[in-house]
Amino acid sequence: MVAIYVALIVAGRRIYNSVSVGLKPAVKEDPEALGLGTEGKPLV
What we know:
Layout: H1 2-10, H2 24-33
Helix pairs in contact: 1-2
């Protein structure tokens, strides 16, 4: 589920706030590892 949410956020189809509470920590870590923020945009 984490990978699906991350892919949807990066594609702009979902937002981080729509992720269930139990998955939020993992969904936050994966984009950061790719240099992206929780909105799927590059970190500055």
